[in-house]
Amino acid sequence: MFVEIVKRQDDSNDGGLDVLVFGEKLTCDEHGHFLIPGQFVTGLKPADLPAGVGFRLLDQLRSGAGFYKEDCVVLRYHPEGQAIQVQVTTTYAAQEWDGLFNLQATIEARRLVVDQADGYHLEWHKADEECCEMVFTFQQETLEDDLERLMETICDRVRWVEEKANERLWYGGLGRLGKDDR
Q1: How many beta carbons lie within 10 A of that of residue 144, not counting itself?
Q2: pTM of the model
Q3: Which of 79, 130, 135, 174 could make an SS bond with 123 (beta carbons 3.0 to 4.6 A apart)?
């Protein structure tokens, strides 16, 4: 078994679980998600992940693919649907924003992309003078038997939202997605 779950008797943020991948104990973040190094993703199958447990990519995949630092991407395997549930929380502090476009306009463009694209679901968003945050979800089928390739696809889908939103801002269109979009 490449991934093991060990139950403990305590009330920590990880739900009293230790997750071992290839014998190495994973770190748990403050929200109870286990941080899996990209090097561990290589060689795993989606079905190796314990059902319902939240995982985040700690660094990047062997290919160099990964997520932006502003994106907290949580993956949960659901074997009954043969899918990975993906939750993306994007957070930008206004004083740190260095984007080409206005921060609120950027988040609004991303919200519109998520709202209009097939397969994405907007959970929540807020934009004010101090912070902009958006949470959206999607499912990725686990047709691949290679977790690394599946994670690369998930990285592409998360980046696609930003790319489409930037296109809207760059070309001035906030209308509906065209037929060539997802």
Answers
A1: 15
A2: 0.88
A3: 135
